[in-house]
Amino acid sequence: MEIGVILATLLLLAVLYIIIRLVLGPLKIITRFFINCGIALIALIVVNFIGRYTGFHLPVNPVSVMSVGILGVPGFILIAFLSFLFV
After folding, report:
1. In this predicted model, what pLDDT tens digit does every residue of 34-48 receive, in sequence order?
2. What DSSP string runs through the chain?
3. Distance (Å) of CA 65 to CA 46, 49, 76
4. Fewer CB in a 10 Å sphere around the end CB: N or C, the chain?
5. Range of 54's domain?
6. CA angle 12, 28, 80 (to 5 degrees)
7. How many domains does the chain have?
8. Is the distance from CB of 48 to CB of 55 less than 8 angstroms?
9. pTM (predicted TM-score)
10. Mean of the pLDDT values across residues 18-45?
């Protein structure tokens, strides 16, 4: 084999690696976002189910689910505080 063919193959593999990293990076972030939103939805439903007995209710809509999904526990506290404040 010639050295030019070997270098071209290595360059092609390096470019392919860079392209794969650029494509899979945002997919990992989007996947993590959807998983967190799913967990937030389940948490809000559980709180509403338990809160049925105590009279505590949190809204379950896309904005509250995404807020809790992105912010986590502080987002949950924020939604609970805003729900308490404006009810």
Report:
1. 999 999 999 999 999
2. --HHHHHHHHHHHHHHHHHHHHHHHHHHHHHHHHHHHHHHHHHHHHHHHHHHHHT-----SHHHHHHHHHH-HHHHHHHHHHHHH--
3. 13, 16, 9
4. N
5. 3-85
6. 165
7. 1
8. no
9. 0.73
10. 90
